Protein: enoyl-CoA hydratase
Organism: Rhodopseudomonas faecalis
Amino acid sequence: NNYEYLIVERQAAVGLIRLNRPKMLNALSFGVFREIATAIDELEADDAIGCIVLTGNEKAFAAGADIKEMQPKTFIDMFNADFHTIGGNRVTTCRKPTIAAVSGYALGGGCELAMMCDFIIASDTAKFGQPEITLGTIPGIGGTQRLTRAIGKAKAMDLCLTGRMMDAAEAERAGLVSRVVPADKLMEETMAAAEKIAAMSRPAAAMAKDAVNRAFETTLSEGMSVERDLFHATFALEDRAEGMAAFIEKRPATIRNR
Ligand code: HXC
């Protein structure tokens, strides 16, 4: 596929999607969201790929939805186009594990896009925020919902109502990001994590991802029930039998993704 706003690469078993609108701090236009959905389709269908990394550049992961594109739009324009439907939701429906590697600004739709990934690794320069309120609007693809579940009501309210930015250290304390690494190590560390994940049993990784994501959606008893069923289901995997046999025999496991 040819992309106007993205660079999509494959590095061994990892699919790398780079937002590539550097002059606009990777502002997320409708076209960008459409291309992200296409890139996820492409990488998800590729059997060689076991994990997907979404990133921007050093200065910005993404500084939000494209304000210049949005400014003239009316209710019915936004209602009909719907960011959530055209692209946002496609990241969350991806069955392969996804990691957001965030350096610089992850604001508005950028913060929301990062939160759609399974987890976020941040560089020490990362800044997260939901500044929509300063534009007279509110977050539209998860900034009041995923953020609140991720970091709790107090901080989510603070960010959504003041529009202030949170630095990487605060984001890590709050539980928004899984790790903070020096800026010049961000891609190295993220790609290493992605390669590690891609080398795991793919169906086991998909089930683990599903189960954790379910915790975000549902009650504890429902989630426990889903986890139990998926855990039992892993006993139908050849990879599970082989993984445990390899441990006992003190040898590396041969993963077959089945
Ligand atoms: C369009 C943007 C943009 C955006 C930056 N640019 N963010 N264009 N949409 N979201 C453009 C600027 O206009 C400028 O273009 C160029 O990128 C560089 O930005 P500067 O502002 O000059 O950079 P700097 O001074 O370093 O400031 C960085 C910044 C600031 C603090 C991140 O750009 C900023 O506040 N951006 C907007 C952040 C924001 O409000 N995001 C939320 C959007 S609403 P020119 O042509 O002047 O050089 C949203 C709703 C989501 O995301 C709803 C669902 C998707």
